[in-house]
Amino acid sequence: MSSPGSMQELQEGSVCPLCACYFEDPVTTECGHSYCRGCLVTHTGRKQSTSGQLICPKCGRAMSWKGVTTDIQLGVTTRIARRLNLPAPPKRKKFGAQGLQ
Ligand SMILES: [Zn+2]
Ligand SMILES: [Zn+2]
User: Fold this and answer.
1) Which end of the chain has fewer CB atoms within 10 angstroms, the N or the C?
2) How far is the CA of 31 from the centre of ligand 2 (A)?
3) Residue 87 confidence (pLDDT)
4) Where does the RING-type domain start and stop, copy by copy (predicted)?
5) Which residues of the chain are under the pLDDT cut of 70?
6) Residue 69 CB: number of other CB atoms within 10 A?
7) What is the C-alpha to C-alpha distance for residues 61 and 16, in angstroms, rounded to an integer?
């Protein structure tokens, strides 16, 4: 995935799986999955707390909030995608409500 890629790749790589919109303050979990910070907080139903655990909505891995890092690179990518004024990302099935494992 190191090739420049198409616009579509850029677009799809900038979309949060939880809200199906461009990332807002993107973070990456220990397992390498990315979400908006707000979406992840909402999904886990917890405010950020140093002791709180969270379950990755995608792979179900349990980890602590300490393992979640701000994804600067993704933030840049998302900004580029926004600046290019790409069309709205393709609608995807909403996760979350369906209880991913
Ligand atoms: Zn989101
Ligand atoms: Zn994961």
Assistant:
1) N
2) 5
3) 63
4) 16-59
5) 1-5, 46-51, 86-101
6) 11
7) 18
CA atoms of 26 and 37, how far apart (whole Å) = 6
Residue with tokens 């979640």: 68
pTM, to two decimals: 0.72
Say how many Å lie between the CA of residue 23 and the centre of ligand 2.
16
Question: What are the chain's domains?
Answer: 7-83 (3.30.40.10)
Residue type, position 81, single letter:
A
Hey, what are 28's tokens? 């990456």
Could you identify the residue written with the tokens 């579509």?
8
pLDDT at 85 (0 to 100)? 74
Helices (H), ranges, 13-58? 37-44
Which ligand lies nearest the alpha carbon of 57?
Answer: 2
